[in-house]
Design a protein that fits this description.
Number of domains: 3
Number of helices: 2
Radius of gyration: 30 Å
Strand content: over 45%
Structural class: mainly beta
Largest sheet: 8 strands, mixed, barrel
Strand order of the largest sheet: 28-29-30-32-31-37-38-39
Number of strands: 41
Low-confidence stretches: 1-27, 184-188, 505-511, 519-533, 539-557
Length: 557
């Protein structure tokens, strides 16, 4: 049975009008429109976690400041980020009227200018991305579009970071900004120094913190207090901490000149000091009556001069600062001083050729599929000691993508890039806090029941021989050169416990965590962070800051 199709009167008139306009010509319908090309980004994230704080005292002209994290993992109960998570931080500025509603207005926000807090921007000074295992990357370009439907927010950001990598991050869901009117406020939350301080320092320490663009961050500490047998200073007295930015010198020599207090983070500058929720940051003086009674003066203006002999490391350092309360704080030191903890030009701690003692170590391996997008299967192998002793980390790409066949027999050579081809291994290099690629690592006991990496050497070249004996049994032999010309070699035979990471929903485009993490001071010096000498008052103050809660900590540019 046929059914009839009826047009409404208006539809009929429209059809007739169209017929009159085109006459009896036969028309060919337009082909299907070509969809716009899809955009590929170096990093894509559909965020599932929202974390935000609202500030009313962090802008230049009263703007509402929405400090916003979009991430794939939450912060822990102490406010610290998960080292394996991806976190995007947007330091968003909106009209001051948003403080009344405590809600971020919808709209398009652009990456702002340095030291600016204009409405409908997110600040370039603090906005950044934290990828797994990295300290963070600043942004150089970006747009954030915020839309609101009822209680549901959608964030959609396209960004470029300082390495040139592109990012696309989205989030859809509820938002809730924690907000305490007044924020940190302008009133001090500490006992401020009220009388001028002028000391002749008997002890000084300069410690390397970081470097970027040939500028190194150095923390100076000066004190006039005596030191006990365990290295702690004995109050009463004063201690000055100065965060300064010096031209980089690999030997730790100080650059002569005058260092002015400002927020530029450029060479020959000194960072001002400030209190943030109880944290003493930047440059400041502490005047101790005893170990628990003290006053603090945060530097807001002034300068530090360094004169003397770089050849003999003999310097005269004079500090002439003013606190935010307008109180004068001065310090003078004369003597020998070099910057401790300077990175070595190489990572290896070996002082000669070395054969690893890894027989009997437990062997594990993880398969990551075509992780490097070079057509082969990526295997991460770890031959770890049960306690202290030698270990070996391997990152290789094999022919084929069949996990069930195991790691193919073959001789693997060092890749010439960060993306190994089949038949190659990733040469060892340091990625922020991580040993990445092929590394020798040696564990030592810290005396408190824990182990730490005391020795290490990257594989820069050489042969890695893998023999698949069947039934998950392997023979592994190797002879590598480290980055200081030493040969390190060894042999291991045993069973590898292999895991197919891709079977758990792993995406080759996601970030694979590195196998071994080391403390920052261990990266290039091969020492425990606890061994780095700093002036401390007993009991030692070990306050640290979380990335989610300390707004005024910038990444090192």
């Amino acid at each position: 049975m046929k059914t009839k199709t009826y047009l409404s009167a208006s539809a009929t008139l429209l059809a007739l009008a169209a017929f009159v306009m085109v006459g009896c010509e036969t028309t060919t319908p337009d082909p299907d429109p070509v969809p716009p090309p899809s955009v590929e980004y170096d990093h894509e994230l559909t965020a599932t976690v929202f974390t935000g704080e609202l500030y009313d005292d962090m802008a230049n002209n009263g703007e509402a400041n929405f400090y916003t994290f979009l991430s794939d993992r939450p912060f822990d109960s102490d406010g610290y980020a998960d080292i394996a998570g991806t976190y995007y931080l947007f330091d968003i500025y909106a009209p001051a009227s948003a403080l009344e509603t405590e809600a971020l207005p919808a709209g398009t926000y652009k990456l702002g200018e340095p030291d600016a807090t204009e409405e409908m921007t997110f600040g370039i000074d603090y906005s950044c991305v934290y990828l797994p295992g990295e300290e963070g990357r600043y942004l150089t370009d970006g747009t954030l579009v915020v839309t609101v439907e009822g209680d549901t927010y959608t964030f959609d950001a396209v960004l470029t970071d300082e390495t040139g990598a592109t990012h696309h991050v989205t989030y859809t869901g509820p938002t809730e900004y924690s907000y305490s009117p007044g924020g940190g406020g302008d009133e001090p939350t500490y006992n401020a120094i009220s009388e001028p301080v002028d000391i002749e320092a008997s002890l000084a320490v300069a410690t390397y913190a970081s470097d970027a663009n040939d500028v190194m961050t150095v923390t100076f500490q000066f004190t006039d207090m005596d030191v006990d047998d365990e290295g702690y200073v004995i109050p009463p007295g004063a201690m000055f901490t100065v965060e300064a930015y010096l031209p980089y010198n690999e030997d730790g020599k100080l650059a002569l000149g005058t260092y002015e207090v400002n927020n530029t983070y450029d060479e020959y500058s000194v960072s001002p000091g400030y209190d943030f929720y109880g944290y003493t940051l930047g440059s400041y003086a502490v005047k101790y009556t005893d170990a628990t009674t003290y006053e603090v003066g945060y530097v807001s203006a002034g300068s530090m001069s360094i004169t003397g002999s770089r050849e003999f490391d003999l310097y005269t350092i004079k500090c002439d600062f003013t606190t935010i309360e307008g109180v004068s704080i001065k310090c003078r030191f004369e003597g020998n001083l070099t910057v401790s903890g300077m990175p070595l030009p190489y990572y290896s701690t070996l002082t000669g050729d070395y054969t690893l003692n890894i027989s009997g170590n437990t062997g594990t391996g993880s398969y990551y599929g075509d992780y490097y997008h070079t057509g082969g299967g990526n295997w991460m192998i770890d031959l770890a000691p049960s306690g202290t002793g030698d270990g070996l980390q391997i990152d290789l790409v094999a022919e084929g993508l069949d996990f069930s066949a195991g790691i193919p027999t073959g001789t693997y050579t060092a890749a010439s890039s960060y993306d190994p081809n089949p038949g190659e291994y990733a040469a060892g290099y340091m990625d922020e806090y991580y040993l990445t690629g092929v590394w020798y690592y040696g564990y030592a006991d810290d005396g408190a029941g824990d182990v730490y990496i005391s020795n290490m050497a990257p594989a820069t070249s050489g042969d890695l021989n893998i023999t698949n004996n069947g039934n998950d049994s392997y023979t592994i032999s190797f002879e590598f050169l480290d980055d200081n010309g030493n040969t390190w070699d060894g042999t291991w035979e045993g069973t590898l416990a292999l895991t197919d990471v891709t079977a758990g929903g792993y995406s080759a485009s996601s970030v694979r965590p590195a196998a071994k993490a080391v403390a920052k001071d261990v990266q290039k010096a091969g020492i425990k962070a606890a061994d780095v000498s700093k002036i401390q008052v007993r009991p030692a103050d070990k306050t640290t800051a979380s990335v989610s809660k300390v707004k005024k900590i910038r990444l090192t540019r």
